[in-house]
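Provenance and format

Records in this collection were gathered into a single text stream. Each protein contributes a sequence line and a token line. The two records reproduced below are adjacent in the stream.
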Amino acid sequence: MKNSLKFAELGKEYYSKVKPEKLNNSHLVHINEELKNKLKLNLTKKELLGVCAGEESLV
């Protein structure tokens, strides 16, 4: 899984890397497909859930 996050290209003063905490019994309630497409997030539902639940990373 690879995605381009343009803010990460701005430099370290604009973001910081943190280790997410995993969630238990997580599930998706709604996916805003329009926003997902604008952000160019080419993720399956399973991958998106993994990112939102702290189990996977976008980078």
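Adjacent record:
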Amino acid sequence: MPATVLRAEKLCNMKLKGQHIFRLVCITLLWLALCYIVIVSQPFNLRVAFILVASAIIVFVPLYKKYVRCKDNNDDSQSTR
């Protein structure tokens, strides 16, 4: 198997430990603080809404792919065996 496939399987087999949960909470709180600063500093309009949605996608989609999607795939594969 290629090294990238082995690395992906290793990442998918990771459990959410306390340090990972703490990291996710810190990232979420920082993102919320930055969103608050953006909303308060200027009037809320479509441009600001787009900035918030785009930043949420940029921040949370990679985290979802790393932690949640792999966990769901492992649960499905184990239940079919």
